[in-house]
Specification:
Elements: H1 9-22, E1 24-27, E2 35-38, H2 40-44, H3 46-57, E3 65-69, H4 72-84, E4 87-93, E5 101-108, E6 111-118, E7 128-136, H5 140-151, E8 155-164, E9 179-184
Parallel strand pairs: 3-4, 3-7, 7-8, 8-9
Antiparallel strand pairs: 1-2, 4-6, 5-6
Helix pairs in contact: 1-3, 3-4
GO molecular function: adenine phosphoribosyltransferase activity
Keywords: Cytoplasm, Glycosyltransferase, Purine salvage, Transferase
Enzyme class: transferase
C-alpha cells in the first residue's frame, strides 16, 4: 500500500507555487547530466518558507517529534517543530555525533552511507515522529531514516519532503508510510 496523507489541496497548491517560483535550477551539478534543484532561495524567503512549513506540518499534525535529515532537513525540521509545538531530532551523517549512537547503513549507487541518532532510545520509544527532508530521490536516505527511528522504538507517522523526483522511484521505498511531497517533478 502506498499511503498518502490528506493535506489541504489549497495549502499544497500555495506552497507548490511558491517553491516553483523560488527554486533555482542548476544544470550539470553536482555532475554532468544532473539538474540540481537548489532550494536555498526557497528557505531564504520568509513567506515561501512559511508556506512550505505550513504544508509539511499539515502532513502530520499529531506528530510528537520531528526528525530532520542531515542537512537541509534540519532547517525544515526546526520550522516544522516550531509550527507543531514539538521537539526536533537531528538525524546525522555517520561520525557527526558523539558515542553512543544508533546507526543504520544503506546502499548508495556507488558504495554505502550511514546515518545516526543518539543511542538514548528513551527519547524515541513510543513517540509519533514526522520525518522531513528537502528532496526524495531514490529514497535510500529516507528509508534508512525510517528504519533507524523504528528500530529505536518510534512510530513514524508520516514522511514529508519539499520536492519528489518521481522518475527515481523513491516513493516505493516508503510505501508503508504516508508521504507528502509539495512539488513532484
Amino acid at each position: 500500500m502506498n499511503a498518502h496523507r490528506i493535506v489541504d489541496d489549497a495549502l499544497l497548491r500555495r506552497a507548490a507555487a511558491a517553491v516553483s517560483a523560488k527554486t533555482r535550477w542548476v544544470d550539470d551539478f553536482p555532475s554532468a547530466g544532473v539538474r540540481f534543484a537548489d532550494l536555498t532561495p526557497v528557505f531564504a524567503d520568509g513567506p515561501t518558507f512559511a508556506a512550505v512549513v505550513a504544508a509539511l506540518a499539515a502532513a502530520a499534525p499529531d506528530a510528537e517529534l520531528v526528525a530532520g535529515v542531515d542537512a537541509r532537513g534540519f532547517l525544515l525540521g526546526g520550522g516544522l517543530a516550531r509550527n507543531l509545538g514539538v521537539g526536533v531530532l537531528a538525524v546525522r551523517k555517520a561520525g557527526k555525533l558523539p558515542p553512543p549512537v544508533q546507526t543504520v547503513e544503506y546502499a548508495l549507487e556507488y558504495g554505502t552511507a550511514a546515518i545516526e541518532i543518539p543511542a538514548d532510545s528513551e527519547t524515541l520509544r513510543g513517540r509519533r515522529v514526522l520525518v522531513v527532508d528537502d528532496v526524495l530521490a531514490t529514497g535510500g536516505t529516507l528509508a534508512a531514516t525510517v528504519q533507524l527511528l523504528e528500530q529505536a522504538g518510534a512510530e513514524v507517522v508520516a514522511v514529508a519532503v519539499v520536492t519528489e523526483i518521481e522518475a527515481l522511484g523513491g516513493r516505493a521505498r516508503l510505501e508503508k508510510h504516508p508521504l507528502t511531497a509539495i512539488v513532484q517533478i
